[in-house]
Amino acid sequence: MPVCWILNESGSFVVALSWLAVNAYLFIDTFFWYTEEEAFFYTRVILGSALAWARASAVCLNFNCMLILLPVSRNFISLVRGTSVCCRGPWRRQLDKNLNFHKLVAYGIAVNSVIHIVAHLFNLERYHLGQAKDAEGLLAALSKLGDAPNESYLNPVRTFYMGTTTELLMTVSGITGLGISLALVFIMTSSTEFIRRSSYELFWYTHHIFVFFFISLAIHGGGRIIRGQTPESLRLHNVTYCRDHYAEWQAAALCPVPQFSGKEPSAWKWALGPVVLYACERIIRFWRSHQEVVITKVVSHPSAVLELHMRKRDFKMAPGQYIFIQCPSVSPLEWHPFTLTSAPQEDFFSVHIRASGDWTEALLKAFRVEGQAPSELCSMPRLAVDGPFGGSLADVFHYPVSVCIATGIGVTPFASLLKSVWYKCCESQSLPELSKVYFYWICRDAGAFEWFADLLLSLETRMSEQGKAHLLSYHIYLTGWDENQAIHIALHWDESLDVITGLKQKTFYGRPNWNDEFKQIAYNHPSSSIGVFFCGSKAMSKTLQKMCRLYSSVDPRGVHFYYNKENF
């Protein structure tokens, strides 16, 4: 594997490995502490090794619950991303994978939750068996503690005749534990790709059960079911000697009755900082949602695509960034991400929205009357905008050569980038690092080309006039067509302009051969660092990652491809 690719991918690997290492350390350290700690010797007599399993997984749960909100704190991520001193190169690209880390931490929560629940089910059963009539020896003596005055109990189950489920639902820890488990099940199941694609609204709403999850988590330890010997009792009660003389605890001065107390709740300490940070995040979003957004233009495109031009006070953006949009008349709570298709040099910001779900379909209906844009802008629904937020495309200008690849509506982030290049050419601005842009767009529907073709035509014309036609090389691929379209294409094939787009560059039919494309780019730029930027399907993303690995040189002085994927 090329050294450069290892460096490029090492960021993700190091982050995941560091996270795993910290989890492993916390689990092992806590497990052995509860296995050997003298204060919990009598607790282990009743519970056995399940005590250590429950406590070790609880610490890992606290750690992961501390992390889970950080990757979705968008303003915090933007702040860190803007700190170039602390966040450069491969490490900066890790911020674009914040949702991947969020999912990784969520899996950690799920795994540790299962361990914690199973261990506590064993604990509850062992507590219950400690009160059985046939219980004897030290186990019976410990379970009976708390029945007499001036004794503190160790076994929270006080009678054998009460069912385990009833006992569970009579404690703070049991009730909150059940609530946390149900919340986690709802959140995890609704986060599957199938649910997100078929019903994003269900995913969005169930994710907000996290508020109940964290409240329950904060008070979960208040039940103090797991109890250990108090420090004062340890000084007076020698466990090593007294464990064999439990029958003499009441009478012997050397073995006073041991005293127990519950462990102080600690989950809230782990989660407090991130929860406060995320609360500030939501306050900022709430403040932004009440800033006025003026809609200046609405355009309805073929293939159910809506173009919105907007203005907002003090709005500043960079190419490739995205915003979150809320439409109160469609849903007063839902926010959805859309990449900006305007350039920083324009006096407005724009998005292109395709109908691909309940919310987007309702939005298109709200802004159109029988397929036409409303004639009066003042009659349009109100929009709230949060952002912009940085994406991987903001790094396009940091490479001498950039390869931009999009599928379908995934082309929208590159509209902003190409417009910015166009404006820089118009203003005769130099692009200090960027010397070449390769642009690939793979699309199924010929009608989807319409709105983007005008931009490419302007780029083609202006760059030729400025003598910079070499800067941009674009390739458009049509993957779907019918028989009539094929006949029409064949009849006009010899014309100077493409029959589909009206551009000088002819449209290709089918899919690109990525081996040939990457081989040619590597040949054209033998000693360059090449940024590959993609927005589209997961399957193609894997293919492009493979190409970047395959065609990056082993020699540090050779060509190196750096893969970047747009994430929301």
Automatic annotation (TrEMBL):
Residues 285-395 form the FAD-binding FR-type domain. InterPro entries: Cyt_b245_heavy_chain, FAD-bd_8, FAD-bd_FR_type, Fe3_Rdtase_TM_dom, Fe_red_NAD-bd_6, FNR_nucleotide-bd, RBOH/FRE, Riboflavin_synthase-like_b-brl. It is a multi-pass membrane protein. GO terms for cellular component: cytoplasm; NADPH oxidase complex. PROSITE patterns: FAD_FR. Its main location: membrane. Keywords: Cell membrane, Glycoprotein, Heme, Iron, Membrane, Metal-binding, Oxidoreductase, Transmembrane, Transmembrane helix. GO terms for biological process: defense response; detection of gravity; otolith development; superoxide anion generation; temperature homeostasis. The chain crosses the membrane at residues 12-34, 46-72, 104-122, 168-190, 202-223. It is found in: Cell membrane. SUPFAM superfamilies: Ferredoxin reductase-like, C-terminal NADP-linked domain, Riboflavin synthase domain-like. This is NADPH oxidase 3. It catalyses: NADPH + 2 O2 = 2 superoxide + NADP(+) + H(+). One of its GO terms (molecular function) is superoxide-generating NAD(P)H oxidase activity.
